[in-house]
Amino acid sequence: MKILINALSGIGDALMFTPALALLRKEFPEAKIDALTMLKGVKELYENLEEPDNVYYYDMLNKSKFSTAKYLSKLRNTYDVSVNVYPSNRKEYNLLHYFLKAKKRLGVNYIHNNFFNLGFLNNVTVKENNTSHCVETNVKLIQTLINKDEKEIPPLSFPLKQTDIDFASRYLSDNRIEKNDFVVGIHAGCSTLKNHINRRWQAEKFAELSKLLIEKRNAKVLLFGGPDEKELKNKIENLVANNNFINVITENLRQTAAIIKRSDLFVTNDSGLMHIAAAMKRKTIVIIGPTNPNFIHPWQTEYRIASLSLDCAPCFFYSPKPLTCGRTDKQFKCMHDLSVEIVYKITEEFLDK
Question: Is residue 157 part of a domain?
């Protein structure tokens, strides 16, 4: 059997498919399993896994439709099965899926805009459930091949190389992180695509929370983020202005994950790094506004949700539609009115339990 995994969305989404990928390899040890990616971070992640035989990477976001079709043509009519990683509710993903011409095209039947986004092009589907985690939905999807229920779902998989572990050890030592230090990881960013910048808690509040953790817990605070979040990170660093606060700079996602593993606590927006923290089994506090926590809460690790739990939430669902707020009194009240005091109280209760 030849199987292609279409991991075309974000790092967090790709990571939430890894338990399903592990089950797929376990059930079909002799199968050829390849992955198709279009984000460099996803490529890095999947190349480090044992399950895929090959990882194909093509920067479709910055290439023409013609060149993308030319690249994909070499994969056409090659696979018995192809799988659209959940979530991937876009017509472009479903058209690509159909173009590849696998005999079985596995995808989710979405609650919102499934027909509009050409979900009918997938010929093996499972129904989306807004009470299920993305990991569970991905496992349910591959169970259409396995034809049995999996009672035990594996954890997220983000294996580290020894070079990454050694890098983290040197980096922490160079930045005066000692064995007995209480270390808190912070991620103040998230994707900005489709207006998702409004899923971010304010930079000023992350700075105030960091100050409280340093003052009251004598914490060493590590600020994480990608190259595109440099300005955001610098702003928070300047606001905190404390020697116990370290603006972490790495060369790749694996190095970032290796340093995150040293965190005793990770405080984050809903982001790919949140899922990496879960894969590293870190205690995690997730700041959530419009997102459904059932879909994305940290998988198989201790966590708490920091949220106002407004009546209008969750209002975000998987769709190409940009994130909008329907409130007339205050736009994105769920994020803007979530105070530092509330998040710090949750942090204290979590740490002291």
Answer: no
User: Does residue 173 sit in the same domain as residue 305?
Assistant: yes
**Domain with 345 in it:** 162-352
Q: Is there a contact between 36 and 75 (Cβ–Cβ < 8 Å)? A: yes
b/e sequence 90-113, b meaning 16+ C-beta within 10 Å: beebbebbbebebebbbbbebeeb
The CA radius of gyration of the chain, in Å to the nearest whole number, is 21
Contact 206, 335 (CB under 8 A): no
Q: How many helices (H) and strands (E) does the chain have?
A: 14, 12
pTM over 0.90: yes
Whether residue 168 contacts residue 280, with contact meaning beta carbons closer than 8 Å, is answered with: no
Within a domain: 155: no
Lowest mean pLDDT across 43-47, 143-147, 276-280, 342-346:
143-147
- The residue type of 200 is R
- Which CATH number belongs to the domain containing residue 7 in this structure? 3.40.50.2000
